[in-house]
Fold these 2 entries.
Entry 1:
Amino acid sequence: MRQSGTPRAAGQERWCAVSKQLRIDFVSDVSCPWCAIGLKSLETALERVSDVATVDLHFQPFELNPDMGPDGQDIVEHITQKYGATAEQQASSRETIRQRGAEVGFTFDMERRGRIYNTFDAHRLLSWAEGEGRQRELKEALFASYFTDCEDPSNHDVLLRVVERVGLDRTTAARILGSDEYADEVREREQFFQRAGIHSVPAIIINQRHLISGGQPPEVFEQALREIAGRA
């Protein structure tokens, strides 16, 4: 840790740690398992670099399946159609995700999670929660709701329960869900990051300049954060 000293009185110096302020834009979808892994890894890294950096963390919207219908789709069918993955490949991928989640302290219930859903309304609530100072809590709770509890993130009753769970106002959330509030804002942010070249998630952008892609281990995030803080 680098330190700097400033003379305070004759024959005396007071030393203080230099902590850099970093902005992180975490572009992700609440139905992306690698985004949940990436967030847990990033949080571990943030704890490790607290001696050199403080972080202003913002969650930005990305929809993996913006055209998904209201009933969702069977997840095996969906991945087969979208990626051409065989049943064996999907089983191997699920186990890899489960293990990586366990390594960073996140639980995936791979057996009960059978469908994938539209996430646009969840992103609208995340935009609202940012102004309420509860965006990070809501993001974490939405990940847990979908991947651990196997709930439908497009279902308004589910979303309202999650909102209450993190201390946000249910009545305000219900009003938002029953309207088009934050819809334009979400679409504008999605388009902004797509124009910037973000076409897969998670995408972690530090100080609006440095990109880290994928659900990396904590060590990767820690090294990058220390290097960027050192140059800031």
Entry 2:
Amino acid sequence: MRIEIIYPEIANLLGEHGTQQLLEKTFADEEIVFTSFPDLPQFFTSKVDFIYMGAMTETSQALILNLWRPHAKDFRQQIDGGLTGFFAGNALDLLGRNIVYEEADTIQALGLYPFDTLCKRFDRRNEIVRGKFHDFELMGYRSQFTTHTGDSSAHPFIEVSNGSGMNPAVETEGIADKNFFASSLNGPFLILNPEFTKWLFSLFGYRGELPFEADLLAAADLRRADLSRHFDQKRFRK
């Protein structure tokens, strides 16, 4: 197996060092490719089983898009061909049509999905989001000053039950397209949701356990119980 961690030195905000460590420990006996900026990710041109990218600064977003735009069709072909991957945090923004700043220039994104990212720097949302994907109960933390306009629910990932979706008009969060997933939630997400993560890794043939799997599962159960009490109390008070 070949696992590619994309730009770990700059795409590592909001706890995503933890996801990198999870991947390193899970796939310690496999080939892990650490692609540093400004190298082009290997999945564009060669066989990779799983790609991962975390959150980054807005400056890094612009630099990465300048490098990747000529390869947007290659990215689309890889997804259509069944590439397994997960993009966390504002790595999701790279995949839409444009990143629109309220008082700055609009940046053209990759155009893989029919949404735009609207950035309002002084309108940050911080919240816990809970929802479902298939039979998985998922949760993550949102801390962002962006919303996603356009057809942001064209490839829905999480059906949101508590918290907000990609914008106030939809009740879905993120992208699920064949074996490729992206979510603006952090946590880090793959550590918070070990059942989903193990299933995700199975899509490209991994059959082993996660590192510290029993502890990850026990912690996930505690979080779910705590969130249920919290959200149920809020509904009761209303």
